Amino acid sequence: MHPFLALALLATAPPAPAWLAGDWEPYSNAFIGLGMLRIAPGRLSWKECRDVPYEVLSVAGDSVTLALADDSRCLLGGAPPARIDSVRLTLRPNRCDLGVTLYATPAARANNVPDAEGLYGKPACPSGPVSHAAANLSTTPR
Hints:
two-stranded antiparallel ribbon
């Protein structure tokens, strides 16, 4: 890709919403092993993923979809492990809980066929996790 075209495409990417930034802790059993999710403008850290660049693909209301850098080391469990291509993050109405949907390929994302789903939350929220949210949400890696 021509450098000027790449720069133009980045300039048209929507900005990440302010609520996205910060630390998010796993509530769902499927994501406990991944540990804390740390999101900063343009970068995220998550288990073996350290300071991985991302691009905001879309923002729709309280949902944002991120594409991880092609050279990221963000992996889903399984045999063999699959690389995480993109992440959809949806802020729940309580403003504390975050639905996390992982996709291993652009095709899976386009067809809304997640490879894993779960729930994260803000550690500073007084309510903590919704008491039964993790039990009622599909958290099994697919």
